[in-house]
## 1
Amino acid sequence: MITSTRLPPRAMGAGLGLKPAHYRAVLESDAPGLWVEVHPENYMLPGGPRLHWLEAIAQRHPVSLHGVSLSLGGADRPDPDHLKSLRELIDRYRPALVSEHLAWCRHDGIYYGDLLPLPYTAGALDRFCDHVDEVQDALGRSILIENPSLYVDLKGDMTETEFLVEAVRRTGCGLLLDLNNVFVTAINLKRDALGYLETFPLDAVGEIHLAGHETDPDGSLLIDTHGAPVADAVWSLYRETIARTGPVPTLIERDNNLPPFVELMAERERAQALLEYADEAALADA
Amino acid sequence: MREAGFHDCFASMLRGGDTVTVAAFAGGTLTGFPVYRNSVVRSAIEVLGDNYPAVRAMSGEGNFAALAKAYWTAHPPRDGVMAHYGSGFADYIAAESPLGMPSILPDIARLDRAWSEAHLAPDSAILSPGALAGVEPERLADLTLRLHPSVRLPRSDRALHASWAAARFEGRMVKAGPESGETVLVWRPYQEVRHRALEPVEAALLDQLAAGVALGLAAERAGCGIESFIRLLKDGVFARD
């Protein structure tokens, strides 16, 4: 069997969400294509071992900063102190990617710790784009915006993909396509996941997320828990997507019910193999 | 604008309001709204429990969840840096003295908090015993020393270190010690947090040194000999500069 060696070792193939329990294993891994993603909020600290580990890991593997608290879809402007801390982390760790969410989480000085939905209206779009502009100016770089997982349908003037297309056009941001979120939202709101991808601006996608979901206790909704292996249906969406986009840095996101490192790496290898296959296919087409 | 008031209504629902408050914005059923409300509360409870593992272990999951939810209602987080969330939890427990909870809980919370603060403190080189080798013995008494920035010295009326450590690191309950008072040293000389109960003379010496008193006078006031100082020096509780 021939394995592809076209992707150089520091190229971003399939990555993992970095967990303290796996710091050493990640640092010591030389798996081709491996990269790591962290929430910058967990590293906005005066000092200590977390920063040391990230520093060491960043020397070996590409790093992505995936923010969860800028509240770009909020009514309030992004917090300038938070942006300053984020800029400091970017200057220190030189991440390959920086991303945030199409969501809000802060309102009137309270942080809610969850990614909350916003109505896709013209007014919300204007404000969202203002916030993205402000963030990109403060950080001196463009960011990727992730599509949310939704549990409710809100009234609006446009679809989510129309909202994202327009945000990309106006702000020059890229997109982080979370395929588990696409699936979860499609089931919860009785929509069509493939139809969503048909209208999604794939050219703007700079990263893909894969994660697991679980069914809520009364069985009516899927919850984006990041607490289970990636579902088969999400793997199918992934194959469909990268057949169109070619290889895109892909993250296995696992935050809860954390399995042993080898299990997580096995799931990562599956994505890595599909990426290498997509790379071969793209080369064959060229 | 159709979304005017949306965030106010949604936030009010998250903080315990009825889903009716957001009904005007819903394009379908309201059944999904409680998912957000539950997830916000659950994540606050989880974060607080991760920051206060000994309090969680001693309270039991159910009691802890109720306490953490009440704390969240009174003191929700202000930003996304969760390592800092709950800095006032010990005082809150002391003020509320929740029914059926052990009376030592506020002091246990202070020990958990000291661990977090030591863990996240700025990095700083420690003063190694070797660094004092060049100091003339007669000049040692004149030295003033700075505590390492990670050093925390939580105090309690009862000896709690053993109970706290057993609950925090092993989920095991150990009866609190005698009502003799105790100072615990929690610090991070390198990249790992350490902790031990101090002898009363060691605690007194550190208090004096932290106040800027020179070593000779500090030892005299604390009533301790050179061996107490040497032990603390070897532990790495002083900053190099």
## 2
Amino acid sequence: MTLTRSLEQVGASVRRMIEFLGGTATMAGRAVVAIFTPPWDFRALAYQIEALGLKSVGIASVTALAVGMVMGVQFAFGLMRFGSVMYVGKVVSIAIVRELGPVLTALMVGGRIGSGMAAELGSMRVTEQLDAIRSMGADPIRKLVAPRVLATLIILPLLTILADVLAVLGSMFIICLEHSDVTPAFYINSVFETIRMSDVISGTGKTFFFAMFIAIIGCYQGFSAEGGTEGVGNATTRTVVVTSTSILVSDFFLTKLFMAF
Amino acid sequence: METFIRFIDIWKAFGPKRIYDGLNLDIVRGETITIIGGSGTGKSVLLKLLIGLLTPNRGKIFFDGREVTGSRESDLRAVRQRIAMLFQSAALFDSLSVGDNVAYPILERDPKVARGELKVRVAEKLALVDLAGSEQLKPAELSGGMRKRVGLARALAMEPDVILYDEPTTGLDPINTMRVNQLIVALNEKLHVTSIVVTHDMESAYYVSDRIAMLAHRQIVAVGTVREIRESTNPDVQRFIRGGA
């Protein structure tokens, strides 16, 4: 009896997982087709870039500055043991540009905009607004999902570049303040000597994948919300959990992938 | 009398919950037919099946001689542009003003419509539901009755052949209920559309209907004119219209 119940639960979990993977893959495919085929709704795209992008500048900037300063302090503390404080700029910048900038920006911005998408679209779903769009002969994927996916694909790489710059400046500020032998000019110079275009491409390239995960998971969870306000709340929570996990797990594979090129 | 919409041997279930076991119903062009039945009997499901928001497990649905069941989403869009639906909650888009809500289906059908013409058409539809001049209001500023009427104006903006009303008077006070009922009748006379009304409000059903169909035991158990339904000997019909247990 217990074994049967356990098997049923495993079966249900596997079914839900397959439904989720199939549903998100189908939605992603349809969204990409809608992005590349007319008619295009530039007004909706501009609105989403403002709502998702401009309003995320604050959170991305504060996170980047704080992480940059902490990294500066920690690496200076560690490297001081080997008398190598002058290498802080090199180590911090490569860690930020290749890894921390993209991942932390995706996690912070993704949490904000992914949950926002799930909540907004989930509310539309439970109040029959998505059905209303379909009933008027319109395609909710083209109307609602495509502008959000495209806007996220545009803004996340840009926010990541901004975060990279601010994090490096944050670490520079704290190092130059605490160690008089490291000047801003020396610091900046060591950063430019270290960072190669391949580092920027590897770091920023990953954000296109993260953007796709954030937008598709947020929209899918919103479209699947059921059961009134409680369902919307669950969809929002699931979005944050699934998006964060997807970013962190995929980061390893994407890092290996970009290293291969 | 020409059959405009046909439901043939419709079976529908949500998981273990069976909704229809071989439901049949014919709807004539230009009539107002009301579907009555208890809560949870699947009245609204019938409307959603017609426009392809849901699909039956078995059976066929025909609209104007064309089979709807099994159609692709792209083919359904053509059907949906001829059928407008007033949702139970009105389903207005919260982020858009009243005017933009009503303009939505017009722009969907003709994205290049001139701004002036669009404005005129929106004003015309709002006037039809006694809400002239409310273009700038947001849905959050509207009362329940006003929301339903804006929903109706948006449905009319599609210039449909068929209007589906899902519980149009639920949650409204008696004055607004009568107002919506009068609108349904007046629009039918003026625009000669086919109307399918889903309700459990018998006063409304008597007021707006040419025919009434009773849904019970997962099937249509009785169909007839208002008089025929009032005088029906079917125990399900009598129990429902008299409010008995």
